[in-house]
Amino acid sequence: MPDFSLKKKVALVTGGNGGIGKGIAMGLGKAGAHVVIAARNQEKTQAALDQFAAEGVSAEGFFCDVKSKSSIEELIEEIEQKHEELNILVNNAGVSIISLAEDITEEDWESVLNTNLRSVLWCSQQALPLLKKAGGGKIINIASEYSIFGSAYTLSYSASKGGVIQITKSLAIAWAAHNIQVNAIIPGCIKTDMTAIAQQGEIYDHLISRTPAARFGEPEELAGAAVFLSSAASDFVTGTSLAVDGGFSIM
């Protein structure tokens, strides 16, 4: 059997204090990794850490605003000082702004692109020396169904998540020589605060009608894919995008 264990691994998950990020962080921790969650809301981070501790997961939290390159640099410096190296990076932090295409403001565009797309590059760049120091590692970028499909109401989000797929492919090529595998996960309809508006009424009925599994997924259901892509079991897998969506993307 391939090795799915993450014992003695250090994993950084941006936006790991809630939603999909917390589900993934919990899964990596239960597979043996020491989890570092980085986010802005420190109260929410502490609540997540309390939950991790109750589940026997080794974890710690740091403040980071992924829109700021200097904040990312400070985060990586703290990880290096405490752990010397890094084995796994999960670029999960993300935001979405609902707006008609003609009404998108420059401020909203910059906020979404900086959070969802630029941060993937900045976090990966800053983490690279620590991944190389560890002899290689794994980067997992959280994409979206909107990496594949367009949307009249979330154009900036769709643009950013389409870019995540291309960054994933390009970094996979660029850093393969360093024994770093870079992949993406494409979540489907997952029960999170961000999708609350879609969990009711006509929107919900429409989404369920085109999801073969006929339900929304739970954040914890992303953990299996993340553990696989973080482990030695996926050492010959790079540049790919794995849909965890109940079949939404094929319907």
Neighbour order of strands in the largest sheet? 3-2-1-4-5-6-7
Name of the CATH architecture: 3-Layer(aba) Sandwich
What is the CATH superfamily classification? Answer: NAD(P)-binding Rossmann-like Domain
Largest sheet: 7 strands, parallel
Q: What would you report as the Rg, rounded to the nearest angstrom?
A: 17 Å
* Beta strand count: 7
Strand content: 15-25%
Topology:
Elements: E1 10-14, H1 19-30, E2 34-39, H2 42-54, E3 59-63, H3 69-83, E4 88-91, H4 106-133, E5 137-142, H5 155-174, E6 180-187, H6 201-209, H7 223-230, E7 241-244
Parallel strand pairs: 1-2, 1-4, 2-3, 4-5, 5-6, 6-7
Structure description:
With 251 residues, the protein is of the alpha/beta class. It has a single domain (10-246), classed as Rossmann fold (3-Layer(aba) Sandwich), CATH 3.40.50. Helices cover 42% and strands 15% of the residues. It contains seven helices and seven strands; from the N terminus they run βαβαβαβαβαβααβ. It has helices spanning 19-30, 42-54, 69-83, 106-133, 155-174, 201-209, 223-230; strands spanning 10-14, 34-39, 59-63, 88-91, 137-142, 180-187, 241-244. The chain has a seven-stranded parallel sheet, sandwiched between helices. Helix 5 (155-174) links the parallel strand 5 (137-142) and strand 6. Helix 4 (106-133) runs parallel beside helix 5. It is globular, with a radius of gyration of 17 Å.
